[in-house]
Amino acid sequence: MSTPRIAPGSLRDVGPFTWALARVFGRRSGTEPPAVFLVLGRHRRLFRGWLHFAGRMMPGGRLPRRDSEIVILRVAHLTGSEYEATQHRGLGRRAGLSDIEIDRVADGLDADGWSDRERLLLRVTDELYGTSDLSDATWADLRAELDEEACLELLLLVGHYQMLATTLRALRVPPDRLRR
């Protein structure tokens, strides 16, 4: 990856709230402070709004964390987001995904071993990524599996991580390094 287009901000650039939050999240994930926080945090008002929005879906959403992580890892794969793939491999493990399952996300819904629900989540993610829409059949299957609020959350989760992957790629943000 080439040189980042916007460097992670300093304490002065992002303010004490974001600076402290990045350090806490880095410690929890075993990495340096997340660059996503320190880059997006350079726009303080937008960062706080984004953080609130993102936190309502993950980790504070209605979907089980395991489901959310399958979706996020699939979006990371489809978009080629090295940052999100690296970040969410660890988060996926914490949510109960095995390394085999995490690797299988790249193979998609036709890979052996997925439950019907997991195949549906992958199908929804693939359709939204490919067409920005869902077929009537996929929507019917989704509504049979999830309530209305969870459906809304899933659609927003896919769109949010596509947006984030695009932003991180355009800014050339490299994955966070593991702490020593």
TrEMBL record:
First and last residue of the signal peptide = none
Q: Which residues form the Carboxymuconolactone decarboxylase-like domain?
A: 46-127
InterPro entries with a match to the protein in the record: AhpD-like (IPR029032), CMD-like (IPR003779)
Please list the coiled coil stretches. Answer: none
Q: What is this protein called?
A: Carboxymuconolactone decarboxylase family protein
What taxonomic lineage is listed for the species of origin? Bacteria, Bacillati, Actinomycetota, Actinomycetes, Propionibacteriales
